[in-house]
Write a structure and sequence with these properties.
By secondary structure, this protein is of the alpha+beta class. Helices cover about 40% and strands about 20% of the residues.
Length: about 200
């Protein structure tokens, strides 16, 4: 908790789970964080060894932050926290999603049994950035970037795409191109668990 209990620590590390990010990318993705707060949190996470600052090689030549190998080991912990947190009576699936938080969410919440033997690839365009979800005989991978020969393209604001996946909201804010049967199947993977009701024995 000395590392993760400080405000903004978990959102910052979450946004780095799919690869390096610039300061401006992080600030845009984390709802409500100020530049000063982000600067302090990055410095602290770098100090304790969970992230590292580096400059990408030419032609990019930009300063980015990325997780260290130890920092990346937080991934399964975040998945477990996510599965636990959605059972909260106060969980609100309509809250803003960053592209990265949406991709991590669909990796965490997909029903494993429904994926068995399935192979498909979906290209997402979220907030102007490319992300992918791919399933190979039931094994799921997600990431930032393009996927070869996707079966489906999904484009929209991350929160609108989340509403379509988790709440069945249909609207013009989400554009679908390709295998519509795959989109319908994909959305069946995400059934939110029952809420925890207090008091419990």
């Amino acid at each position: 908790m000395d590392i993760l209990g400080e405000r903004w620590a978990v959102p910052v590390m979450r946004e780095l789970m799919l690869g390096p990010r610039r300061f401006s990318d992080l600030k845009a993705s984390i709802n409500g964080i100020s530049a000063n707060a982000l600067t302090r949190r990055l410095a602290r996470l770098e100090e304790v060894g969970t992230i590292i600052r580096e400059t990408l090689p030419p032609p990019a030549s930009v300063r980015v932050y990325r997780l260290t190998r130890w920092g990346a080991e937080l991934g399964p912990v975040l998945q477990a926290l996510g599965r636990w947190a959605v059972r909260s009576p106060e969980h609100d699936p309509t809250r803003p999603f960053s592209p990265t938080s949406l991709m991590l969410s669909i990796r965490t919440m997909a029903a494993p049994a429904a994926l068995e033997g399935k192979s498909a690839a979906i290209q997402f365009e979220l907030g102007g950035e490319a992300y992918f979800w791919a399933c190979d005989a039931g094994a799921v991978s997600i990431g930032r970037g393009e996927v070869e020969a996707p079966d489906l393209h999904v484009r929209g604001d991350p929160s609108a795409v989340a509403a379509a996946i988790y709440m069945g909201v249909e609207g013009d804010e989400v554009e679908i191109a390709g295998d519509h049967d795959l989109w319908r199947w994909f959305r069946t993977l995400f059934v939110l668990p029952p809420k925890a009701l207090a008091p419990e024995a």
